[in-house]
Specification:
By secondary structure, this protein is mainly β. It has a single domain (about 5-95), classed as Immunoglobulin-like (Sandwich). It is about 10% helix and about 35% strand. The protein contains one helix and five strands, in the order αβββββ. It has a five-stranded mixed β-sheet, with no helix packed on it. Strand 2 (about 35-40) and strand 3 form a beta hairpin. The protein is globular and about 35 Å long. Mean pLDDT is about 75; it is low at about 1-25.
Length: about 100
């Protein structure tokens, strides 16, 4: 596995710890542009999806697509790249 892929997986295998409403934590996807990120709950239901994830405005902050806080738990992600790069999958743990 390349260093870039390992770095990407390490960033995505993150534990969110929301200490206060002022603390904003998010998943950061380095070195990617045109992509689609989908996050699923433990039952496989899609809870979040965004195209062109950019680490600033199009970013996962522990909220579903309607803006509601997701509960503590394990979530699974899929990142699809328009460039032809292989899809990345993995999981993250959200703690409140």
């Amino acid at each position: 596995m390349s260093k870039k892929v390992l770095k990407l997986l390490a960033v995505l295998s993150v534990v969110f710890a929301s200490c206060s409403e002022e603390t904003e934590q998010k998943i950061s996807i380095p070195e990617t542009q045109k992509n689609k990120v989908t996050i699923f709950n433990r039952w496989g239901s899609k809870v979040f999806e965004v195209s062109n994830y950019n680490n600033t405005t199009n970013v996962f902050r522990g909220l579903n697509n309607e803006g509601t806080e997701l509960p503590t738990g394990t979530y699974f992600f899929k990142i699809e790249f328009d460039s032809g790069r292989n899809m990345e999958t993995g999981y993250l743990t959200l703690k409140r």
